[in-house]
Specification:
Blueprint: H1 2-23, H2 34-57, H3 62-76, H4 79-91, H5 95-121
Helix pairs in contact: 1-2, 1-3, 2-3, 2-4, 4-5
């Protein structure tokens, strides 16, 4: 049942991401990906909010929690999960691991994009 919840949430999240992309075009001649920034910031806020609300304050079935967090927000953006995990590390006093998480996540993602583009161009 959790797989169905993730699939349904993912479908909704992907459609929301697409709609946001259509509503918020890039500005300054395509240099600022406004829709991506909006999705990442919004998704991070929602995951942070829902992590507390759904996990600690409400009695929400696991299928619904996973459908929303992993499915919907996961499809909308994965940056929200990265942000939540980094804040959890900081709040836990694990600043070195938070810094490592940021450095590796951002650095590796940028490197992976570059590598993928380079391979595609070869």
């Amino acid at each position: 049942m959790q797989i169905v919840a993730v699939a349904l949430g993912g479908a909704v999240g992907a459609l929301l991401r697409y709609a946001l992309r259509e509503l918020l075009p890039s500005v300054t001649e395509g240099r600022v990906p406004l829709a991506t920034i909006a999705a990442n910031v919004t998704g991070s806020f929602l995951l942070g909010f829902l992590a507390i609300t759904l996990l600690q304050r409400a009695s929400v079935p696991a299928e619904l929690r996973i459908g929303i967090t992993v499915g919907l927000l996961g499809a909308f953006t994965t940056f929200s999960t990265f942000s939540l995990e980094t804040v959890d590390l900081i709040e836990g006093g694990d600043w070195p691991f938070a810094l490592l998480n940021v450095t590796l996540s951002v650095g590796a993602a940028l490197l992976a994009v570059w590598a993928g583009q380079t391979l595609a161009r070869a």
